[in-house]
Design a protein that fits this description.
Layout (H helix, E strand, L loop, with lengths): L12 E4 L1 H9 L5 H14 L3 E6 L19 H8 L7 E7 L5 H4 L10 E6 L4 H13 L3 E6 L7 H11 L6 E6 L6 H15 L5 E6 L6 H10 L4 E4 L13 H7 L8 H15 L8 H8 L5 H8 L6 H9 L3
Parallel strand pairs: 1-2, 1-8, 2-3, 3-4, 4-5, 5-6, 6-7, 7-8
Helix pairs in contact: 2-10, 7-8, 11-12, 11-13
Length: 322
């Protein structure tokens, strides 16, 4: 059901993916103080979920290259947030093909986490089904995040959704991995996910990247058409072009439980200094990959090189065969 934008839905939940998605900018090498500040701000602002990182398998991920938030061991999380005696729920992302979910995802009664976010590509749906069932059996809330949906043919999306709605996942998330979507695509996909998920009571979410500076607009579009699970990050921090900015989302939502001042405080104290050390945001190379519906890895490489301001060369290289 379409909801007027001027109202609010109390069932709409906000997830802060600053640390998890932002970790892709600095190899997850956040200091404990940064993590605690984001956590405290999320609690004070009334955010529903904080996604604190990945649970990658240490046996398949290069040791020493990444910080601890690539792995989210229980001891590391508890060192910063204790037993999390707050209403804020903690989430981790478990990637198909990259995590030892059978062993590294502990039963909920032994974990500080509340939710597992299962991320997978269409060709990994079989493993995703097993991951969802495992996490649910262990006591977690679970979301199913089909990545790079804009590269998947419609018939295949339908097939994946048919499989997902038969799982115990609580939510199915529209993921615009390449930041290439426009409002019309968001509307179509949110309605499709809702249609599939309605019978089994699944919520629909949106995770928008900002390559074309549409992440906030596309998140609003998803909300209008019934998405009740929305992702955002502080100052849009995230891989490449980043995500929907939390400060804009909270300013837009009419739910009186959300408080925006703690967001501005943590932006000033933590995100602003970080922005002077590492780069993220919708720079021109990300605009190009978004328009071409391509993975931003080429743009990330271009921005880290000595020709990061040579937009024409980048455009010509990516479009030479188009």
């Amino acid at each position: 059901m379409t909801a007027p934008w001027i109202t609010y839905r109390p069932e709409l939940k906000v997830l802060d993916c600053t640390i998890r998605d932002g970790g892709l900018v600095n190899d997850h090498k956040f200091e404990d103080g940064f993590i605690r500040a984001v956590y405290d701000a999320s609690v004070a602002a009334g955010i529903d979920y904080l996604e604190i990182g990945y649970k990658n398998d240490r046996k398949v991920t290069a040791q020493g290259q990444f910080g601890v938030w690539k792995f989210c061991d229980e001891d590391d999380v508890r060192r910063v947030v204790g037993d999390n005696p707050t209403a804020l729920k903690l989430a981790a992302m478990i990637d198909a093909g990259k995590c030892d979910w059978r062993n590294d995802v502990l039963p909920k009664e032994r974990s500080v986490f509340d939710m597992m976010r299962v991320a997978f590509y269409a060709n990994q749906v079989s493993e995703a089904v097993d991951m969802i069932a495992d996490a649910k059996d262990k006591g977690y809330e679970v979301s199913a995040n089909l990545m790079a949906v804009t590269t998947v043919k419609e018939q295949e999306i339908d097939q994946v959704l048919e499989v997902l709605v038969a799982t115990p996942a609580d939510a199915i998330v529209v993921v615009d991995s390449y930041g290439s979507m426009y409002a019309e695509q968001v509307e179509l996909l949110v309605k499709k996910y809702l249609d599939y998920g309605r019978a089994s009571g699944k919520q629909v979410g949106i995770h928008a990247h900002n390559n074309q500076q549409l992440a906030f607009a596309n998140t609003i579009e998803a909300i209008i058409h019934g998405a009740n699970r929305v992702d955002a990050s502080l100052m849009g921090l995230g891989r490449g072009a980043g995500n929907c900015p939390m400060e804009l989302l909270i300013g837009f939502l009419r739910n009186p439980k959300f408080k925006i001042r703690p967001i501005w405080e943590v932006l000033q104290s933590q995100l602003l200094p970080l922005s002077r050390q590492v780069e993220w945001g919708p720079f021109p190379q990300y605009n190009v990959t978004g328009q071409l519906n391509e993975h931003p890895r080429s743009a990330i490489a271009a921005r880290s090189g000595d020709k990061k301001d040579n937009y024409v060369e980048f455009f010509d290289r990516l479009t030479s065969d188009v």
